[in-house]
Amino acid sequence: MNKFAFVDCITVDEALGQLGEGATIKAGGIDLLDLMKDDIISPSKLVNIRNVASLRGIIPSKDGLRLGPLTTLSEIADHPEIQNSYTALADAAGHAATPQVRNMATLGGNIMQRPRCWYFRSTDFDCKKKNGSSDECHAHAGENQYHAIINNGTCAMVHPSSTAVPLLAMNAEVELTSKRGKRTVVMGDFYVPPEKSLINETVVLPGEIITAVFVPAPEPGTRSAYQKYGEKESFDWPLADAGVVLVMEGNHCRKASIVLGVAAPTPIRSAAAEGILTGKTIDEATARAAASAAMRSATPLSQNGFKTQLFQTAIYRTVLLAAGKMPRDPSSIG
Fold first, then answer.
1. Alpha carbon distance 187, 3 (integer Å)
2. CA gap 1, 39 in Å, rounded
3. How many Å apart are CA 117 and CA 127, to the nearest integer?
4. Which residues, 6+ apart, have CB-to-CB distance to 203 below 8 Å?
5. Average per-residue pLDDT in the chain?
6. Under a CB-based contact definition with an 8 Å cutoff, are residues 239 and 230 in contact?
7. Other C-beta atoms within 10 Å of 42: how many?
8. CA 77, CA 79: separation in Å to the nearest integer?
9. CA end-to-end span of the chain, whole Å?
10. CA 221 to chain centroid
11. Which residues are 212's β-sheet partners?
């Protein structure tokens, strides 16, 4: 790890003034430390925003939920209003990593994580995402059991953010601040697919800081759920996860939003699955049909075909959970 300067900031303006070439924002530092230890990035200056009080906090209102980017995953998971009205977000935050990590990891850092791909994360491989000379994605012909099964033609990485899944399903917005002022980006436009850029994974520009995340108030009848499946359920990265938001009138679904996490290089909505549920009664048959529809566009690689079935299970169970058709512990339903 190269030497670097460390600058503590207590206001947003102070942090913005420290940004420039070679500078990197540090919040919780969970993913940042891994990237630095693996020599993926070598910043000359860390701008520590951990002590910027204005970037913390959870503010519910009649219009929705305003979240400071320094709010920890533990704080989100434990907040009563989020548990009641934004259940999928509380579940996603509460199932990320370990309790120790959730106490440090921030919402802003979670949605800004770099992708999970051991070829990208290893200095032994000249990955094209690292400005390498290689034109190939090593995962296409290599060890790819944990990689993308949808939209994986250019790059087979997956985005690991748990909170991004329900935030996308809930049509959240991200507030970005720079010396030029503020702008707001909807979650649907926040992530940049590899087909558009192999270097930029989000629309956050140099000199910008996430200053808030806003989640609109749910419509009457809204229910939501999140499910994650991994090799080690206690703390492992997800092999499949799904976030579902349903606007219900009794057993009838008036509107549906279904988002898949580590299926593709970015969190993605499944319009096909949403179309199956919209206007229908939610039961096991429609939940299975939606799960099957979501995987019609899957193009699994040589070693990750199992994720197609795993995602169908995740979607099926999460739909039923959101609709109130199954207990919080899904082990009793196949």
1. 35
2. 7
3. 10
4. 185, 189, 190, 191, 192
5. 94
6. yes
7. 13
8. 6
9. 47
10. 25
11. 175
Distance of alpha carbon 180 from alpha carbon 324, whole angstroms: 46
pLDDT in tens, 141-171: 999 999 999 999 999 999 989 999 999 999 9
Q: 238-253: per-residue pLDDT in tens?
A: 999 999 999 999 889 9
Is 278 buried (19+), middle (13-18) or exposed (0-12) by CB count in 10 A?
middle
- The angle subtended at Cα 169 by Cα 80 and Cα 316, nearest 5°, is 95
| Selected residue with higher pLDDT from 199 and 49 | 49
Percentage of the chain beyond pLDDT 90 is: 85
* The two three-digit tokens of residue 265, written as one number: 């290089």
In the block, which residue shows the tokens 């540090």? 26
**What pLDDT, on the 0 to 100 scale, is given for residue 331?**
47
Give me the torsion for CA of 33, 159, 89, 176, rounded to 10°: 70
Task: Encode pLDDT of 100-131 as tens digits.
Answer: 999 999 999 999 999 899 999 998 888 888 76
